[in-house]
Structures are given as structure tokens and as C-alpha cells.
From TrEMBL:
Keyword check for Coiled coil: yes
The keyword Coiled coil is assigned to this record: yes
Coiled-coil segments: 14-102
Organism: Ptilonorhynchus violaceus (Satin bowerbird)
Name of the molecule in the record: Troponin I, fast skeletal muscle
Protein family: Belongs to the troponin I family.
Function: Troponin I is the inhibitory subunit of troponin, the thin filament regulatory complex which confers calcium-sensitivity to striated muscle actomyosin ATPase activity.
GO molecular function, one term: actin binding
Keyword line: Acetylation, Actin-binding, Coiled coil, Muscle protein
Name of encoding gene: Tnni2
Length: 178
């Protein structure tokens, strides 16, 4: 029991030491980010000096608008690149998921078994079910329609076209329509 207590005390001490180290590392990272941000702003954003005349203010506004436009273009380009890369990542992860074979199908074997034998295997020998699928089917006679008779009686299509061409053929079609 003393060994167990010592081991748990040591674990707790190591855990608290690790948490303290992690907290100091987080603080260092935050300070480094702040310094990096200040350096970037000092490099890319010169201090603002407001000119006194109206002409100089207009020129400054034009420069700022041009800078804003260029930054917006860069932002748009980076957003488009980011969208493309995220789409590619999604596609690749889907391909990887498919290649891993999460849905691996077992090799299927042919089984020769009738429907009755399958039911007997599933339901047991108690239930006797007969699976004659064709017994309850209705007999259907095929009726010939007028269109099929016409198509069969037409014969050669060239004769049919020659008969319907010209005014006589149109007259026949018109009279047939009435």
C-alpha cells in the first residue's frame, strides 16, 4: 500500500509539473505571436501622417483605396486557393477511405439451393412452405394493335413514302384523317 501511495503521489507531482511547463510554453508562444504581430505591422503599415491640404488628403485616400483593392484581390486569391485545397483534401481523404476498404466485401461463393431449401434452412423443418412462384401468375394474351398491323402491312418503307409524296398522297392522308 505504501508503494501504491508513493506511485500515485509521484504521478500527481509529475502531472502538476507537466501542466506548469505547458502553461509557461503557452505564455511564451502568446508573447512570441504578439512580437511577430508588432513586427509585421511596423513593416507593412507605416505610421499615418495626415497632410494639411485637401489635395494631399485626396491623394492619400486614392493610395489607400488602391492598397485596399490590391489587398482584397490577394485575399480573394488566397480564399480561392484555400477552397481548392480543401476540396482536394476532401477528395483525397474520400479516396483513402475507399482504398482502406472499410466496407470490405467477403468473397461470395455460389450456392446451389432452391427457394424451398432456403426457406427450410431459414425457418427450420417445422414450417413447410412451397415456393412455386409461377403458380399464381396470370396468363396474358398479347393483343395486336392497329399500329402494329399498319407497320406490318406497310412493307417496304420506300413505297409508303412514294405513295404519300406529292398532292395525291397528301389528299389520301387528309381523307384518311377524316
Amino acid at each position: 500500500q505504501k508503494k501504491r501511495r508513493a506511485a500515485t503521489a509521484r504521478r500527481q507531482h509529475l502531472k502538476s509539473a507537466m501542466l506548469q511547463l505547458a502553461a509557461t510554453e503557452i505564455e511564451k508562444e502568446a508573447a512570441a505571436k504578439e512580437v511577430e504581430k508588432q513586427n509585421y505591422l511596423a513593416e507593412h503599415c507605416p505610421p499615418l501622417s495626415l497632410p494639411g491640404s485637401m489635395q494631399e488628403l485626396q491623394e492619400l485616400c486614392k493610395k489607400l483605396h488602391a492598397k485596399i483593392d490590391s489587398v482584397d484581390e490577394e485575399r480573394y486569391d488566397t480564399e480561392v486557393k484555400l477552397q481548392k485545397t480543401t476540396k482536394e483534401l476532401e477528395d483525397l481523404s474520400q479516396k483513402l477511405f475507399d482504398l482502406r476498404g472499410k466496407f470490405k466485401r467477403p468473397p461470395l461463393r455460389r450456392v446451389r439451393m432452391s427457394a424451398d431449401a432456403m426457406l427450410r434452412a431459414l425457418l427450420g423443418s417445422k414450417h413447410k412452405v412451397c415456393m412455386d412462384l409461377r403458380a399464381n401468375l396470370k396468363q396474358v394474351k398479347k393483343e395486336e394493335t392497329d399500329k402494329e398491323k399498319d407497320l406490318r402491312d406497310v412493307g417496304d418503307w420506300r413505297k409508303n413514302i412514294e405513295e404519300k409524296s406529292g398532292m395525291e398522297g397528301r389528299k389520301k392522308m387528309f381523307e384518311a384523317g377524316e
